[in-house]
UniProtKB/TrEMBL annotation:
A single GO molecular function term of this UniProt record: monooxygenase activity
Protein name: Steroid 21-hydroxylase
SUPFAM superfamilies to which the protein is assigned, alphabetical: Cytochrome P450
The keyword Cytoplasm appears for this protein: no
Keyword set, alphabetical order: Heme, Iron, Metal-binding, Monooxygenase, Oxidoreductase
Co-factor requirement: heme
Transmembrane segments: none
Family statement drawn from the similarity comment of this UniProt entry: Belongs to the cytochrome P450 family.
Binding site for heme: C160
Length: 219
């Protein structure tokens, strides 16, 4: 897979070299060069309102969230998915290499070519995701949600074997935190979503204020 910034196949022309291997070049625009405008509010509610809705869902459930509670906590699960959609931690995945001559979108690909999938761009393709720049967990709750186009862990035979563990950790830890705390920006405010270039999209450090909220069942 090779994706343009809008999730389309880009030209295979203009070769590069990685070690001794030919490389299908990066999309013309690396994902961190053009961060989309992020909208966290509007008709879908502010982040504070989302936290309140998540807390209501969590506090309405019996006991703290566990890995098997995905079906009981759909908004929490949708929030994890939307986070992985808008900012996939590994936006360029790994760099798979073809073992034999192949083709991609009708174009020939020589054996030993490195392919670089741009997951971040694919997950913001406006032909698939409505208002892709908006953080909107509800999109995963709607009937016909394009969940199969969510690829933060890659796809196919070499997809991430740690997906189940990673998703369970995100679900449980986010749920445990939001069940008991309200998160507020620290004095310096929140960082942008630009991230640091690298194989992994890294967020700069920042401070949050964690305001305790009483979980149900505690005095
Ligand atoms: C949010 C957390 C994680 C993300 C976003 C992530 C993402 C990815 C991606 C995109 C790939 C490349 C898939 C492809 O080329 O199609 C990958 C591969 C891999 N991941 Fe993860 N991963 C995560 C957590 C983990 C964890 C927790 C483990 C191990 C416990 C793990 C182990 C691996 C391994 C071994 C591969 C290489 C698979 C192969 O080449 O066959 N990952 N991951």
């Amino acid at each position: 897979m090779v994706w343009s910034p809008r999730g389309r196949l880009v030209s295979l022309g203009g070769s590069g070299v990685l070690g001794s291997r030919p490389v299908i070049p990066l999309p013309l625009c690396a994902p961190w060069d053009a961060p989309p405008p992020l909208v966290l509010h509007g008709r879908h509610g502010t982040p504070v309102q989302l936290q309140a809705r998540l807390r209501a869902e969590l506090q309405g459930a019996q006991g703290p969230p566990g890995p098997g509670d995905v079906g009981r906590l759909p908004l929490l699960q949708a929030t994890v998915s939307e986070t992985l959609r808008l900012r996939p931690p590994a936006p360029l995945a790994l760099f798979p290499c073809t073992l034999s001559p192949s083709s991609l979108g009708g174009l020939p690909v020589a054996a030993g070519t490195v392919l670089i999938p741009n997951l971040l761009a694919a997950q913001q393709d406006p032909d698939i995701w409505q208002h892709p720049e908006v953080f909107l967990p509800e999109r995963f709750l709607a009937p016909g949600a394009p969940s199969r186009s969510l690829l933060p862990f890659g796809c196919g035979a070499r997809s991430c074997p740690g997906e189940g563990l990673a998703r369970a950790e995100l679900f449980v830890f986010l749920g445990l935190i939001l069940r008991e705390f309200r998160l507020e920006p620290g004095p310096e405010g929140l960082p942008g979503l630009r991230g640091s270039p690298g194989t992994v999209l890294r967020c700069p450090s920042f401070r949050l204020r964690m305001v305790p909220c009483q979980p149900p069942g505690l005095p």
